[in-house]
Amino acid sequence: xxxxxxxxxxxxxxxxxxxxxxxxxxxxxxxxxxxxxxxxxxxxxxxxxxxxxxxxxxxxxxxxxxxxxxxxxxxxxxxxxxxxxxxxxxxxxxxxxxxxxxxxxxxxxxxxxxxxxxxxxxxxxxxxxxxxxxxxxxxxxxxxxxxxxxxxxxxxxxxxxxxxxxxxxxxxxxxxxxxxxxxxxxxxxxxxxxxxxxxxxxxxxxxxxxxxxxxxxxxxxxxxxxxxxxxxxxxxxxxxxxxxxxxxxxxxxxxxxxxxxxxxxxxxxxxxxxxxxxxxxxxxxxxxxxxxxxxxxxxxxxxxxxxxxxxxxxxxxxxxxxxxxxxxxxxxxxxxxxxxxxxxxxxxxxxxxxxxxxxxxxxxxxxxxxxxxxxxxxxxxxxxxxxxxxxxxxxxxxxxxxxxxxxxxxxxxxxxxxxxxxxxxxxxxxxxxxxxxxxxxxxxxxxxxxxxxxxxxxxxxxxxxxxxxxxxxxxxxxxxxxxxxxxxxxxxxxxxxxxxxxxxxxxxxxxxxxxxxxxxxxxxxxxxxxxxxxxxxxxxxxxxxxxxxxxxxxxxxxxxxxxxxxxxxxxxxxxxxxxxxxxxxxxxxxxxxxxxxxxxxxxxxxxxxxxxxxxxxxxxxxxxxxxxxxxxxxxxxxxxxxxxxxxxxxxxxxxxxxxxxxxxxxxxxxxxxxxxxxxxxxxxxxxxxxxxxxxxxxxxxxxxxxxxxxxxxxxxxxxxxxxxxxxxxxxxxxxxxxxxxxxxxxxxxxxxxxxxxxxxxxxxxxxxxxxxxxxxxxxxxxxxxxxxxxxxxxxxxxxxxxxxxxxxxxxxxxxxxxxxxxxxxxxxxxxxxxxxxxxxx
Length: 841
Known about the structure:
By secondary structure, this protein is of the alpha+beta class. It contains 27 helices and 21 strands.
């Protein structure tokens, strides 16, 4: 570069950034926060996908296909028929159970393998399979268990240790025969011989999966078709990739929403860059005019402005990538790949960065900053050189009203709310939110002008000066208020949505927990349960007035979707409102040859069912026709749940096991005494939960707060970015008005009066921005509650607006606007009055 080019570059790009380090740092920080959140969520999402993919591959090995059983399992007599299907070279059977661990909610997956077959499909287990088939080191001993490195580390187990798993209320002891290398089994699981798994976990005659390797030259579609003719209705044929997608689908809505919120934070940062650059253009009008007079063309001036935005974006992106990587490492270590939501979690998650990912997010940060600079860059070319070099008002600028555009954006936003989600993502809802925020921004100029003109006349000089200045500096006012509107509206929306969800969850737990004491042994699909004999002994205890029992199972309503929970509970259908939270019901006569069931909202949405609909339930190897009698609110089972009477379930399946027990106590007997008797009745070695409703509510809310910890972080970031926007715009205005302050001081105004003027301006702007933000945020929260949340999680909730919290936050933001304006004015008023006035001449 020539010396002249370097001088011009320094004057046009680098110099202003050095002279205004505060605003430069704020803009960089805004981009950094957005990039950091987006990069953090992306890294955790990718880590989750990699973890699930590795886990699926470690179980599939080199298999091409797998026959997956439904919740009831496969009859093992199908295995020989599968192995003889033309085109199949190797078929390896497996049994999988979720074994209950003492004093832990998270179970341990135990996989039973056929050592002779698995060694042909899973090279990583070849050594283990050989050991088991040779019968050495007690590998075929029914007590031998081979545990993964992840599980051993998390459970603090070593080779030779004993591990007790629970089946029913009985403990089954295993000895750790070996700890598998991490590459052999990349998940929290353990391996036993298939016969041991069937015997000890009550799976005799059942298989969970058959891994299949195709012969060379065979046709996959033909093999699939042949297998389809052999399998029961709830089984299916999948590939390793499909298995990975199924595992990730459970948490896709949660992770996708976090991604969208992270991108919203980046958008807010981009808007802050836009407002900062626009204010800089207005303030530096004479500098640009001087550059034009020195020979800089309009095209070069645009390039310089965009270069300034790119520099801010690059710096912000670099800082954001570092922050994002650190935050992702911490989140994976403390919350897991599901960020506390409880979907899945590995004992040791490896975080790996690639150059392409870093470059992609660096480019995203730069692009966001450049996009925020485009319009200000274009406006630099419209400044008349001769007029700009003369003295005059550099802070004015007419803002065109966009009332028609605002109305059009609102109409489009309302229309697209009726569109269905794209796949499983509520993209129309997010698009509607973006349009509403844009509509609010375009309406700011009209709203602010009307509010200022409607203000009552006050004789105080600082108030009159403040109002007159705000009316005369439309461009500054609009940008300052718009920055507050964007950040504050998103914060208000998230606050209302999270408060509504939490309050609805609290009300729901109170509704579904009417008993005095609750017992639970095992969760859906786990091996622990109460047997019939234990239930009868519980009924006979003194002080127990009545009991309600429940059983958890899984059924497959559609082989292409994850299984739904089947909840069998003892209750009177006439009093169903006392058992669950009914949203809708039908009073039509129960159709002949059907059993009554009640389905959760998620099941209704996913399978398009309504009260009165019929559905076929696979129970005990046969189809049972059921009639939907009502829809109930359920915050526990994301994939949906079906509720039926306990007596009906036991009659259809012969399953008398129980997972949950609700106990109503006699008022004359203290609850503590009843709890003591229950603990004495159940074997001391049995692991079960015994809680009172207050404890369960506390646990549920704690889980909610952990799950939404990231959402709380996003709310804090929204507030921080909003305050950064206020600081950047206010400081720019104050510096541009040094000459004005000098004149005011010259004609007799004191520093305190000027500070009061600035405080009034900041308070007015902050209050108007907060008011618009509250209204916009409430509307956006309704979209989040009734559209985005319902399409993502299929849960309904009641609206709870935290008026007290909103009032406090509004006062904080408005007060912060006034305080920042006063603090920014101190710098402008610190110089010599005459020197400040001379700047305009």
